[in-house]
Design a protein that fits this description.
heterodimer, A: 229 residues, alpha+beta, Alpha-Beta Plaits, 2 domains, five-stranded antiparallel β-sheet, two-stranded antiparallel ribbon, 6 helices, 47% helix, globular, B: 231 residues, 3 domains, 4 helices
């Protein structure tokens, strides 16, 4: 009976798969590229988990050492403060959430791609949040650090070591909520985005949060070419 | 008649068993469907991306994963040192990390190879400056100053009445970016930026030079959190 149940389950799933995925020979090359991207994204995800686990292990070992020495404890406190500002510690506090969604495609070919949320929108938004009292920002659960950068192509947002993000994009900032909210209502800010909100229906929704949470950064902060002067 | 009472519970057990089996079947189908649907949605979101963008993603992810591997290697070394060395090793590791984070956060002067990028123009906006900074950071920059102002993410760049400001100070033209980082990647990025900027009517000059060692003396001041607390 259980086997029948499983068979029924997989039969239904198989039928749905056939409906949802429609592979075509015409897109075989694109499919190969997509699979490469997916493989690399899986590696990227596994590496991030490894980094988070190693950082937790280091913190535990340091805590152990700090319990035996006042010098170590003082150093640990100093580093904890620096880690928090570098984005290596999860933080929470009052803040705002900004949700960005793609608009509707235009029939005018010269407008191609303008209905999509792009990396410059996200870059402008993050910069505006920091300029308006944010103490920490995360983009779709990716924490922004002092050396974060934004790249991408049409509709694709890459932050630091990726992987690429696509709309809907959720920007959460912790800091001076009233300043950040009033910046979001200032018509002189985010002009490119605001125009596309009107022209293409790009979604821009701002919500004030009493207690917003930001995750810790889980990627590389290596700066191999920089040394102390 | 006597069989009825005894058959009732039996039939009830049988009905209950069948219900459980069909519930399991339904759940299995549901879980499989959800998994396939999310897989399909991921594929669909990528399907909408053109091959050139996918190639860009592959290149970017290769580089990103190499960078993550390097970070894993560094963290593994830290773990090994902490596990073998006791309190003094912890002090050494913490001291080294404090310096690393101070350099990263722009709190101390730094040096290293990189480029000096000069942009002389009129009418440039804060968005132009933010774009240039972002391009140089994405192109291998690890530490940067602009007209002797240290720049890290979070430094306030605004459009003031008298022009672009960094942390409240007006930035006069020309803008001189001193960037420490991978000189090869930075050179390529600056080359591309220079080409694009020379096509901009507002730009009088856009040029760069690669240097084996640059010193960045400007620093940002520490800003304690007022609103944020550790989770």
């Amino acid at each position: 009976m259980a086997l029948v149940a499983l068979a029924v389950g997989f039969l239904i799933a198989g039928q749905l798969k056939a409906q949802l995925l429609t592979p075509s020979n015409q897109v075989a090359r694109t499919q190969a590229l997509i699979h490469s991207v997916q493989d690399l994204e899986r590696t990227n995800d596994a590496d991030r988990q490894k980094i988070a686990a190693l950082r937790a292990q280091i913190a535990a070992l340091e805590a152990q050492a700090a319990s035996d020495s006042a010098t170590t404890a003082a150093l640990r406190n100093e580093v904890a403060e620096l880690r928090a500002h570098a984005g290596l510690t999860a933080i929470h506090g009052p803040g705002v959430e900004i949700d960005l969604t793609n608009g509707d495609p235009s029939t005018d070919p010269t407008d191609q791609g303008r209905y999509l949320v792009n990396y410059q929108d996200v870059q402008d938004l993050v910069n505006l949040m920091f300029a308006s009292g944010a103490e920490g920002v995360a983009v779709s659960d990716r924490r922004i650090t002092p050396i974060s950068s934004f790249t991408g192509s049409e509709g694709e947002v890459v932050i630091d070591q990726g992987p690429p993000l696509f709309a809907p994009i959720r920007v959460v900032a912790v800091g001076d909520r009233s300043l950040m909210q009033s910046a979001m209502t200032d018509p002189n800010q985010l002009t490119s985005l605001r125009i596309r909100v009107i022209q293409f229906g790009v979604g821009l929704k701002v919500t004030g949060l009493g207690d917003a949470s930001l995750p810790a950064y889980d990627a590389s902060l290596e700066i191999p070419y920089v040394g102390p002067a | 008649m006597s069989a009825r009472p005894s058959s009732r519970p039996q039939r009830s057990r049988s009905t209950g068993g069948a219900f459980a089996v069909w519930t399991i079947a339904l759940l299995v189908a549901l879980v499989a469907t959800i998994q396939l649907r999310s897989q399909a949605e991921v594929e669909r979101s990528l399907q909408s991306v053109d091959p050139a963008s996918l190639a860009f993603s592959i290149d970017q992810l290769h580089r990103a994963n190499e960078s993550l591997d390097a970070q894993i290697s560094t963290l593994n070394q830290q773990v090994a040192a902490l596990q073998s060395g006791g309190g003094s090793a912890a002090d050494q590791e913490l001291t080294a990390e404090a310096l690393h984070l101070r350099m990263l956060e722009g709190l101390v002067p730094v040096q290293g190879p990189g480029i000096v990028f000069t942009l002389d123009a009129s009418g440039l906006t804060s968005i132009d400056l933010q774009d240039a900074i972002n391009n140089l950071e994405a192109g291998g920059g690890e530490a940067m100053e602009v007209n002797l102002h240290r720049v890290v993410e979070g430094v306030v760049i605004n459009q003031g009445d008298n022009g672009v400001t960094i942390d409240g100070s007006v930035l006069q033209a020309p803008w001189v970016f001193v960037v420490v980082g991978d000189p090869t990647r930075l050179g390529e990025t600056a080359d591309e930026m220079t080409r694009q900027l020379r096509g901009d009517r507002r730009v009088r000059e856009a040029a760069y030079r690669v240097e084996p060692n640059l010193v960045i003396r400007a620093v940002v001041s520490e800003r304690p959190f007022v609103y944020a607390s550790p989770s």
